[in-house]
Amino acid sequence: MFKGSIVAIVTPFNNGQVDFEKLRELVEFQISNGTDAIVPCGTTGEASTLDYDEHMDVVKTVIEQVNKRVPVIAGTGSNSTAEAIELSQKAKEVGADGVLLVTPYYNKPTQEGLVRHYTAIADAVAIPQILYNVPGRTGVNMLPETVARLAPHKNIVAIKEATGSLQQASEILALCGDQIDVLSGDDFITFPMMACGAKGVISVLANIMPKTVAELTDAFYAGDMEKARQLHLQTLKIGNAMFIESNPIPVKTALGLMGKCSDEVRLPLCPMGEANKAKLAAIMKEYKLI
Questions:
Q1: What residue ranges are annotated as transmembrane (predicted)?
Q2: Is 44 annotated as a binding residue?
Q3: Active-site residue numbers?
Q4: Beta-bridge mates of residue 184
């Protein structure tokens, strides 16, 4: 259902407020460079520091600007099942094509708790849902066997797998078959995961290099494995640079250096240190991004 290069778009700020004009410009930058779908209010979109009204205004703005040219998948995950249901229902009402649901963070549910959490959301809201496993941030790893229990639900269509483990992604693919799509949650293993059967990537790197990430996934689907492999290798260095500090600090700093939007982040995130900023700028110059 969702495949190719899917950007986890940043939320631009200006003096503490969401900069909706820049957000619209970033949407156009993505669509004009071949991005296949857009995810507002994910981790990269700093959903954790948006209040409820801001969260929904960002989702609505992206849906309005996209105007059905590509799918919009709203980040609606929460560590409260009731809140995740409420956000998902609202996203559906404003026209989202799907929702992205991060595993509950901080309260560390058991695997049985994860099954009940996602089943409750899928039962309550009839919209395509993407599970999002990112244990490095949430403190809980959704195991392949758990994904296999959820995969038959008609509203659960995919998982964004961001453990960085090709083994875990492969085990999900082996256990679930065609019952659920797998999407890479890490730019650095998009190509290897697609070689194992993943359908694409929900990408941080696409914020600054949408055309290149789209070319990688397009080449794969076109059967041009050599081009996809070369793009995979060529983007490793800049992709790794997106994580020299906590995401989305590097990607926002990069967008700021490119003049696309402010590099402003909200506390407790803070501006990139000068040494890392110089390192990032040097890498971006190698890629002719600045």
A1: none
A2: yes
A3: 132, 160
A4: 161, 201
